[in-house]
Design a protein that fits this description.
By secondary structure, the chain is an alpha+beta fold. It is about 25% helix and about 40% strand. Strands 1, 3, 19, 20, 21, 22 and 23 form a 7-stranded antiparallel beta sheet that branches. Strands 15-14-18-4-13-17-16 form a 7-stranded antiparallel beta sheet, with no helix packed on it. A 4-stranded antiparallel beta sheet has the order 5-12-10-7, with no helix packed on it. Strand 20 and strand 21 form a beta hairpin.
């Protein structure tokens, strides 16, 4: 501050006090200028950068909710009405894909199995009839019409077998199980249900002896190997993001616990409830973290879709809430100019308004320029 000018302020012809040279406003534009003496400029050695447009990496922070990943969550529903007679696994227990979960006793299932066995037996009988009649027709012993009727009966029986077979397959019954029915004696019509995925049972909504109806949910299985994190970003920031952008997943109260991931997909529309765009992140977990149901913080490194005006962070000072910069007019003159900041990155400022491309902006001695201007104003008062 010892370099500040202390020269007397001149008076105009009308007797008004003239503003000090170091902070004199432009005669027509109303710009506030800071003018340095040559010795001040030599001492401060203000460095500048030329303002230009470029693409910017922007860290966008947003909340996220953790859910089970697709194919890592399964709901076990009753495929047919019946009664729960066996439960093999309960809440919290780990299960493997194909492991028995429970058994249903169902009269409807028993009738369907009986229809299949009857149709299969009829098909075998009709097949033998057709083969025998073909031999008789070849030997001119039986009429061709009898063979035609037998082949028609075989076709109808085959259709019946196919229909019952499809219904049993829809219940999860395998071909091997159906083949065993003809040789085994079944005392009770039990329908076994098996785990569709490996994981742990999260919810268990049935009890032993409970009656259930078709499609009633009975339990859920979750695998925590992968999770789906849904982030909610404003429509203004959404165009900057793209699948593959790096993401850091963390907790607000535990910033040291973090997980690196990437954006998987971005929903194409705005959610009408929260007025945001959903960003989907499917990622493997680490030590069972994050867990479904948690709320996490997402930091996405996004890119502007078009070049923007950027300045180093060191170029900007604030007067209250107003951001200001010092634009070089000549080697001894700097204009103190307010700007509108769009957003801040780790080391850059994206300028929305107040700066033109090609202008030189001071990036060092900003505080000194600001203080020099204020000192001169206070000295005159």
């Amino acid at each position: 501050m010892s370099a500040c000018s202390q020269e007397p302020v001149g008076e105009t012809a009308s007797g008004d006090v003239e503003a000090p040279p170091s902070v004199r406003e432009g005669e027509t534009s109303g710009q506030q200028l800071v003018r340095l003496r040559r010795e001040q400029a030599a001492e401060l050695k203000v460095r500048t950068v030329v303002a230009g447009r470029d693409t910017a990496q922007v860290a966008v922070t947003l909340p996220g909710q953790v859910q089970p990943a697709p194919d890592y969550f399964a709901q076990v529903s009753a495929p047919i009405s019946g009664r729960v007679v066996r439960i093999h696994a309960h809440e919290g227990e780990a299960v493997r894909q194909g492991q028995p979960l429970l058994a249903l006793e169902s009269l409807e299932f028993a009738n369907l199995a009986a229809d299949y066995l009857q149709a299969a037996a009829e098909e075998a009988y009709q097949q033998r009839q057709v083969e025998r009649l073909r031999e008789l027709v070849d030997k001119k012993i039986a009429a061709r019409s009898r063979l035609d009727r037998a082949e028609a009966d075989l076709s109808r029986t085959h259709a019946s077998v196919s229909a019952t077979h499809a219904r049993l397959r829809a219940l999860g019954i395998t071909d091997a199980q159906m083949e065993r029915w003809s040789t085994e004696t079944r005392e009770r019509p039990l329908l076994q249900l098996y785990a569709p995925i490996s994981g742990a049972i999260d919810q268990h909504d049935i009890d032993l002896g409970q009656s259930v109806t078709a499609y009633q949910a009975m339990m859920t299985i979750i695998s925590t190997e992968k999770v789906l994190i849904r982030g909610f970003v404003s429509p203004e920031d959404a165009p900057m993001m793209a699948p593959g952008d790096p993401v850091t997943v963390s907790l607000e109260n535990a910033p040291g616990q973090a997980l690196d991931a990437t954006v998987t997909t971005i929903n194409p529309s705005v959610d009408p409830q929260n007025r945001s765009v959903t960003v989907n992140i499917i990622t493997p977990t680490r030590d069972r973290w994050p867990m479904p149901g948690q709320t996490v913080r997402l930091s996405i490194q996004a890119s502007n879709p078009r070049p923007v005006m950027m300045l180093p962070l060191s170029a900007v000072q604030y007067e209250g809430e107003q951001a200001i910069i010092f634009v070089r007019r000549d080697p001894l003159t700097y204009e103190k100019r307010p700007i509108t900041v769009d957003r801040l990155t780790e080391d850059q400022v994206i300028v929305a308004e107040g700066l033109d491309e090609g202008e030189e902006v001071a990036v060092t001695q900003i505080f000194s320029l600001k203080a020099l201007g204020r000192y001169e104003l206070y000295a005159e008062e």
